[in-house]
Amino acid sequence: MSEIVTLNDSTWQEHLGSQAALILVSNGEGLRGDFATAFKKAAAENTRLLFARIDPTTSPQAAAALNAGEKPVLIARYQGEDLVRRSRPWGTDVVLAVELLEKTLQAHAPAGSLSPAADRKKDTAMMEKKPAGNKPFVVTDDTFQTEVIDYSRTVPVLVDFWAEWCGPCRMVAPIMEKLAADFAGQVRIAKVDTDANPGLSQVFRIMSIPTIMAFKEGQLVFNQAGAFPEPAFRDLVQQLIALKLPPQEPAPEQ
């Protein structure tokens, strides 16, 4: 069992230096009830992660160093680097952030004596070999190539582009949870917050959300906006699993 540690301008660097941590930067205003409950529950059940809280009104230097403003922000952080950030987080964001940190810890254990560059190369190889998890996986601008494009060469990936203010997205979220559990090992379910990842939104020209994309063998094979009913999603996943792609021709020599 872990407790939620309160950090300030003097202590935050010491605690967050190399640990895997889930950090809430908030003075308590505008915090969603479902998030508060999920955050406390996750802290009580998890002993591997540091759960911390920083009040930006009393610790402005720490908040500024973490690029946090007045709105509540949830940050998943590992070895001094942010893995994911969620502004005005929901309870489901806690689950996804914990899953991401756990996967990161798993990929880095044992650490050995490899250099950071070798560690990253080893982590990528491990990601490609291990099966998809039983929960949706958070993907960002920086990780999309590895976690979706490259990963889909081994396991097909279904991607949900969403945003917290989007009502239909909240209808799709529980369906994605079910698909991730029911098709674990056969399909990876990924989620991209379009507000937090404008680069991907621009690259794929996402005009409305939710937008659902499917990737297999490194190729985009499905792209459609809209919140589908659960049977339609299940049919899509089954088609994605069964889909046979023709071998790609090698690029012509220059």
Description:
This protein has 254 residues and is of the alpha/beta class. The chain folds into 2 domains: 4-103, Glutaredoxin (3-Layer(aba) Sandwich), CATH 3.40.30.10; 125-242, Glutaredoxin. It contains 9 helices and 10 strands. The protein has helices spanning 12-16, 33-45, 60-65, 91-107, 116-129, 144-150, 167-182, 198-203, 230-242, and strands at residues 4-7, 20-25, 50-54, 73-78, 81-87, 137-138, 157-162, 188-193, 211-216, 219-225. It has a 5-stranded mixed beta sheet. The model is unreliable at 111-132 (pLDDT under 50).
Radius of gyration: 19 Å
CATH structural class of the largest domain: Alpha Beta
In DSSP terms (H or I, runs of 4 or more residues), the helix count works out at 9
Q: Specify the overall morphology.
A: elongated
How are the strands of the biggest sheet laid out side by side?
1-3-2-4-5
Range of helix content:
25-40%
SSE pattern, N- to C-terminal: EHEHEHEEHHEHEHEHEEH
CATH fold-level name of the largest domain = Glutaredoxin
The tally of structural domains comes to 2
* CATH architecture name of the largest domain: 3-Layer(aba) Sandwich
Roughly how many Å apart are the termini? 60 Å
Q: What would you call the structural class?
A: alpha/beta
Strand % is: 15-25%
Q: What is the CATH homologous superfamily assignment of the largest domain?
A: Glutaredoxin
For the largest beta-sheet, the strand count, sense and barrel status come to: 5 strands, mixed
- Quick check: average pLDDT? 82
Number of strands: 10
Spans of at least 5 consecutive residues with low confidence: 111-132
